[in-house]
Predict the structure.
Amino acid sequence: MRCDPSVKVGALTLKNPVLTASGTFGYGLEFEPYFDISALGAICTKGLSLLPRIGNAPPRICETASGMLNAIGLANIGVEAFCTDKLPSLRERNVTVVANIFATSIEDFAALARRLDREQGIAAIEVNISCPNVDKGGLEFGVDPQMAAAVTSAVKKVTKLPVWVKLSPEAGRIAVIARACEEAGADALCAINTIRGLAIDVQTWKPRLSNRTGGLSGPALKPIAIRMVWEVAKAVKVPVIGIGGVTCAEDAIEFMLAGATAVQVGSANFRDPLAAHKIAQGIVDYCERRAIDPRELIGKALL
Amino acid sequence: MRCDPSVKVGALTLKNPVLTASGTFGYGLEFEPYFDISALGAICTKGLSLLPRIGNAPPRICETASGMLNAIGLANIGVEAFCTDKLPSLRERNVTVVANIFATSIEDFAALARRLDREQGIAAIEVNISCPNVDKGGLEFGVDPQMAAAVTSAVKKVTKLPVWVKLSPEAGRIAVIARACEEAGADALCAINTIRGLAIDVQTWKPRLSNRTGGLSGPALKPIAIRMVWEVAKAVKVPVIGIGGVTCAEDAIEFMLAGATAVQVGSANFRDPLAAHKIAQGIVDYCERRAIDPRELIGKALL
Amino acid sequence: MEPMHCGKPRPRQVVVPLLRRDSIGASHHVLTFDCEQPLEAAPGQFAMVRGAQWGESPFLPRPMSILTAGRRPSILVKVVGEGTRRLASSEPGELFTVHAPLGVGWAPCPEDRVPVLVAGGVGVCPLVFLARGLTEQGRRAIALYGGRSAGDLPLDDELAEVTDLRIATEDGSLGQLGRVTVLLESAIEETKGRLKVYACGPRAMMARVVEMCRAADAPCEVSLETIMGCGYGVCLGCAVPKVGGGYLYACSEGPCVDGHAIAWES
Amino acid sequence: MEPMHCGKPRPRQVVVPLLRRDSIGASHHVLTFDCEQPLEAAPGQFAMVRGAQWGESPFLPRPMSILTAGRRPSILVKVVGEGTRRLASSEPGELFTVHAPLGVGWAPCPEDRVPVLVAGGVGVCPLVFLARGLTEQGRRAIALYGGRSAGDLPLDDELAEVTDLRIATEDGSLGQLGRVTVLLESAIEETKGRLKVYACGPRAMMARVVEMCRAADAPCEVSLETIMGCGYGVCLGCAVPKVGGGYLYACSEGPCVDGHAIAWES
Ligand SMILES: Cc1cc2nc3c(=O)[nH]c(=O)nc-3n(C[C@H](O)[C@H](O)[C@H](O)COP(=O)(O)OP(=O)(O)OC[C@H]3O[C@@H](n4cnc5c(N)ncnc54)[C@H](O)[C@@H]3O)c2cc1C
Ligand SMILES: Cc1cc2nc3c(=O)[nH]c(=O)nc-3n(C[C@H](O)[C@H](O)[C@H](O)COP(=O)(O)OP(=O)(O)OC[C@H]3O[C@@H](n4cnc5c(N)ncnc54)[C@H](O)[C@@H]3O)c2cc1C
Ligand SMILES: Cc1cc2nc3c(=O)[nH]c(=O)nc-3n(C[C@H](O)[C@H](O)[C@H](O)COP(=O)(O)O)c2cc1C
Ligand SMILES: Cc1cc2nc3c(=O)[nH]c(=O)nc-3n(C[C@H](O)[C@H](O)[C@H](O)COP(=O)(O)O)c2cc1C
Ligand code: FES
Ligand code: FES
């Protein structure tokens, strides 16, 4: 059986359920030498802010058991440069682009969405209310249901694009935040962002990152991410996109069984530029072997 | 320089800063063939409840990247059997015993403490308000500051023993819970317990654990645990005991630099029955090499 | 046969090099370690084994039946996942932590009963060890060994040396066509029910063997293969449901237990 | 020397076996891989290398300067932590993912300047590669190589073959007593400031070299050794502070960069 790997995230149809996670895939064009990224479900851009940001002082990353900490500090070229310098090339290549946005106030979130709404070639906006690595405006929005809802509806109001909200694992009850965002109009929920961790150098007695704490990503995080996707998927009707430690097709399938409609591949891109491509292929292989449709996987372990 | 590894946790002096974590060291006597456990800082017993519990159906554990999930379900012989069958042998061997307790109501927590208070040979009570693997009474106490404080003061009221409270990493803000417990009279705070995770078998499409979710432990968790210990240590004056992914002396030192007065070794015991013993020795070696006192490490990276 | 339950040798965890790896087909590998102090173990006991250089993942050691004890103890590994894959691809000289002997081995066979060993796949290990022990005592067991096909029967030669071996394969590629339970039926008849069965293999096989023994009113010991965290009684991860409710712990109360005490249906 | 910045060969990630490991003392190891398709790389470019069987931990690949390109590309590994320990203890036949060539190599040396290569420890790799390239073009570089003692100077013979090599050790066990910067002082004098310096080594060494070049008004390129997550510009983990504020990314804008553009003090 030849299987059709496409999935629908709300009104949006993706070629397959494998996306690349914000901050781990640059602006997509870096992958030009490796493969045709228009074959992916979508790419999520590095988090875009209204003004360019240079990011945190180094060291910005360190490795931990089966994972890594990062405190990039949302270094990005700014929404304007993205729209003029990157988006046209992506559009030309027919890439499905999800613009990930970040701001420190509700007004700025709306301004970002308004700016992106003017552009052709953006498939959805992913609202990052869960960045742990900035002084201001990262986590507050993500751990309080009222705030999360306020950001969601402010963004919804100013754009016709589908609005995805990226949830923080640091909210005590992620399902409560998810429901608040859904009620505020979110078209999909993405879970999870990184969890803050700390690593200390026992030689120098100093934190390994200049920002001290950084977000934990990678396989270490996966069981927590799967549990949260499962909780969110039970709590809402809109699609859930699973993120956290996906490195192979089996990981992606695990997320889908837990209720995810699609997954994002993050840190695994650092190990292998073709990771997302191979995972998408692996899902097709798995489904063809079992003669099932990938959509049948979604939520099958929800019971 | 010969160093003296003893540390004080409140009024209690421990031979060294290495304890064994509840649920990973049985009742201590299982280690008889391996080493003299009275040389440890302390052992924390498997969680004790008023009545014996048989625990959850299997499978109860599964492995994840650099860690494991468990949903034992607090299988234990009950406080009465502990006092009559285990404690006398431990007392005879001069083991420093911390009794870990678990209940589903404030009254039962108090009843457990009252029962233990009658016994000789218990150094402290560790109140588990953070067990993720039981239907009732696990996490509620751990994620709500009022509830956490209520349990703490109920236990404090009925015992003269030092009361340690074991915090849940699933509270949105662990420092808030920590402060609530401190105000309610906790003599020390232990952080962290496991974080709930989920693993799904992509062959059978079923959760790997019969309880579905289980608590994540092991090195995967360590960066999160260190960050939380750091947050708690900054928030309170009482000693903090660090737990989560300690497998070697460097890990223990990392926790101490982050603000822990002592550490507990958990899942690492499964890999090596001598883990805690070796870690205690490793800390002494490290300190002798640097000609420092182990107590000097505590909180040195707090800045 | 000497009592194996009492006077158990003390378990130790040692770091030892792999001495040799003998691969039997693609997925079965006998690993032999080089121990300074001989490993004393009784048939049916097991070891927790882990590569000393594995780093943090895989995190836990893997339970493996002891095939032979002594200065050069060995195990038989069947590749099923990451841990066994690593064991199977390791080279002589590599270091391993070996924590052994663990658990309760097989109980003695009453003088008036014929020991009948029922093996499935790698379940053969503790039975080869048992059969060798019985031979030393001048007793000869009947061994029934089954698998899907001839390639699933590692150590059949070793077993043949020390038992009266009968083989069944589901595809008929070796021995009798069918499951090992067909052989057991004949063995029960042949011994007129005066047998004690020792079984180790897939859960479904063991359940069926226990059922047949119950019908024949014969004692039946099984060696449990559950997931284990620690192997020595401290994680409580290896619970197995008992008849009448509650659990027993496979690592400390087993792995060799009375098959009739297990709630197989659950 | 051909322009190395433009017409860069396309990076690829391949899974290739280790062909040989040549250990130089206890802590330096040359690893040579066996590639079907030759690796095209320019001096100064690097590879991200990871054992294909490492499992999930260590998680990330490790950046390693390319020592030689072609069908049998090689790297020189110094053991500093878990990743390099694993690389150093790997055996021929083991599989590795090699992602290369990455980054921007050394810029050409102006015809009217003498190329002076300043190496510290494993920083020697990209300079040996550079020196070989220069030799092919009929130019001969001066190489200054320093370390704590004679054992810290791997590949000194290889460097001597293709350069006018001068050595300094802090303990005087080989070459001149002192740091490599003493040698640089002489070289600046000897060339009357008509030199271009290429430096790779510990951060403190490179900072001092850049300072001396600034005083001599000489161009100075350095190869940055920062922590890297991806090696190809997508994680933004390899930021290095620039003079005048902001950061450059060592993997995509470097590792070979104008030393005068780096804010060494921060
Ligand atoms: C007392 C005892 C003795 C054993 N003796 C042998 C032996 O002599 N030779 C041998 O090859 N195997 C033996 N096993 C089984 C062996 O321990 C498992 O196959 C091994 O742990 C799987 O590890 P893995 O990383 O390869 O697989 P994983 O990737 O961890 O899992 C792969 C599959 O194996 C299952 N599994 C995991 N752990 C166990 C386990 N402990 N027991 C059974 N299934 C498991 C998983 O549920 C999964 O379906 C024994 C088990 C026990 C409890
Ligand atoms: C462009 C480039 C080229 C390099 N070329 C070589 C080479 O040819 N040979 C060689 O032996 N090493 C080289 N390195 C350094 C090498 O990458 C690190 O030593 C290695 O990544 C450390 O990994 P580990 O797991 O052994 O150490 P870890 O346990 O990860 O860390 C041990 C110590 O090394 C430091 N460290 C970690 N990663 C790096 C890094 N990327 N660069 C510098 N220090 C690091 C850590 O901060 C820590 O202090 C190069 C680095 C870069 C960026
Ligand atoms: C280096 C790095 C940078 C990241 N930057 C962003 C970002 O800008 N915006 C965002 O929403 N998430 C960001 N993330 C989080 C990832 O998108 C993803 O949620 C997380 O890494 C977990 O997935 P993984 O385990 O597959 O990496 C970043 C992660 C990493 C590792
Ligand atoms: C199998 C298992 C059983 C546990 N049982 C208990 C328990 O009864 N009470 C408790 O407070 N914590 C229990 N814990 C949590 C540990 O004490 C510890 O907080 C956690 O495992 C993190 O430490 P580690 O990463 O070193 O294992 C258990 C952990 C494991 C792995
Ligand atoms: S495996 Fe840990 S108690 Fe049995
Ligand atoms: S290492 Fe990832 S951007 Fe440079």
